[in-house]
Write a structure and sequence with these properties.
- The structure is a single chain.
- The chain has a domain of 146 residues.
- The chain contains twelve helices and no strands.
- The termini are far apart.
Amino acid sequence: MAKEKNKTSKKEKARKKRKWWPWLTIPILFLLVVAVAYYFFAPPSWPYSAKALREQRVQQAKQQEQLLAQENAELRAALSAMEDEKRQLESQLEQLNRQLSEQKAQLEEKARAEQAEAYQRLRNTAKLFSDMSPSKAVTILKAMPLHETALLLKTMNDKERSRLLSRFDPDTAATLTLALQQVPPLDETADLEEVREQLMAALPNSPAASTRPAVSAEEMAATLSAMDAPSAAEMVTYWWSRDRQGTLNILRAMSPASRAQLF
């Protein structure tokens, strides 16, 4: 009996639940329908509606597009500024290269002019020795540094050089001849300072250089006094550019009349 009563009680409870279930389902379904209708049909001004969310996504997309456009514009402006700066630097570099080329050309032209002028002075001095008698010329050449003597002899032609070399002692003549063979022919494009260095390297160690008889300032003064004034003045000018103290000693050894005529 008890079991049957329990079964009956359970059935009644189940029936009561089934009786209340439709009343719970209808509100839930209604809420779902309202939510769906709200989502799809609510105006954009209503939050969380499909139109509002779509409008929000559109606004975000526009903002991102504007941001990208702004960044792109800034990048283009920066790139344009870099291109302008690059063109300015290239223009400045081209201008500097042009100035350097012009300065280099001017320096080269100046150096060529100075070399030509120095060579012409050397030629004029060599001509003075050629126009002298061999004894006077050799007397003066012996008083000069051996490399300067060699340089002047190199400037002369073979005939003039042979005429003067024959007046030197054999050792000195041989030393000068060997040194002259190491130097190429001279012209207006020759670097005389380089030639002097070559001759100085070739001559100092020769025994003839250390055993040359010294010529006193008095002997040089007497030789200059016997020369015509223009030639003597040219010679003194050349010596002054090589050895000022030695030139002063020679001028002091000259008589006042000869010195006045020379000046």
